[in-house]
Amino acid sequence: MGLPQVNIVFKTLGATAIQRGERGIVALLLKDTAALGAHVLTNITDIPIGLSEANKKQIELAFIGGERTPNRVVVYVYDPNTTVTNGTPLDVALNYLETVKFDYFVFPEIEEADKTKITTWIGLQRANGKMVKAVLPHHAADKEYIINFTTENIVVGDTTYTAAQYCSRIAGLIAGTPLTISTTFQPLPEVDSVQTYTKDQLNQAIDNGEFVIYHDGEKVKVGRGVTSLVTTTQDKGDDFKKIKIVDILDLMYMDIRKTIEDRYIGKYANSYDNKVLLIQAINAYYEQLEIDGLLDVGKNRAEIDLEQQRVYLRSVGVDVDAMKEQEIKEANTRDKVFILSRIRPLDAIEDIDMKVLI
């Protein structure tokens, strides 16, 4: 009977992608001796009683958001001096966060020695299909899933924050930025001043994969919405330097993976017709993302991966040299499905060259 449920789910996910991408979730790790454990907050009125004033402020900073406020802030409070049975108190906190949904991780009091640990942990989550990212201070991880925030001397009223102390604000800003726009030039109206940059220093910082905020003479705003990735490869080009693009790709990955796992794997015969129906459902999802302005129109397509299918058939003893292309597509691949997908996410307008002729 084909794959009607899969098709409906993909269409629904495509239709709600904009709504789901408007407000992300921040995971905030705090050190304290009170209000220990996990707290899921939907606004600042939910802040746990007993937290230090500094930690309350971190939650408030996360909730400021960007165009929107974050959907929620998942707070985990731990005492670093507590004795635990296995690992460290930080390990216990990270083990909990593995079990909950979030988009951006932030740890205001992170030690220098733990930055690499967190980067590795975030990478492991992504390898396991949980497409999370982290905002870390002064950590040139060279990864698309780490935001390297480096601006110091952030003055808000009578308080001056370090980069580490303002990472919560940046995580909330990114989580509250819809997928249709970028954080580039997003204002931080509460900030009075920050460290000074020359234009060359700003450009160099951004080229180095640093997320910076600066005063443009009127207000403090984001320089450019970049990840810490600076070293590109054939698999990860310049697109992966942009937070907006990575967020779109992560949403698509999770939508497609979850739908296939929940609605397809083990539930249908691996016939050619069912493969085609699955691919059609994925393409319908792409079309909806095109309508919503997340993908470039007409440049997104899933299809049977003919080359991989040919390699597989040859590995199981099938003589593919004498087969026509359509025969290879329709061949029995046992429990394997090979899909090739080409996509073109849309970035935001950021660089404008204008020639004026008089």
UniProtKB/TrEMBL annotation:
<dbReference type="InterPro" id="IPR035089">
    <property type="entry name" value="Phage_sheath_subtilisin"/>
</dbReference>
<dbReference type="InterPro" id="IPR020287">
    <property type="entry name" value="Tail_sheath_C"/>
</dbReference>
<feature type="domain" description="Tail sheath protein subtilisin-like">
    <location>
        <begin position="92"/>
        <end position="228"/>
    </location>
</feature>
<dbReference type="Pfam" id="PF04984">
    <property type="entry name" value="Phage_sheath_1"/>
</dbReference>
<protein>
    <submittedName>
        <fullName>Phage-like element pbsx protein XkdK</fullName>
    </submittedName>
</protein>
<dbReference type="Pfam" id="PF17482">
    <property type="entry name" value="Phage_sheath_1C"/>
</dbReference>
<feature type="domain" description="Tail sheath protein C-terminal">
    <location>
        <begin position="235"/>
        <end position="356"/>
    </location>
</feature>
<comment type="similarity">
    <text>Belongs to the myoviridae tail sheath protein family.</text>
</comment>
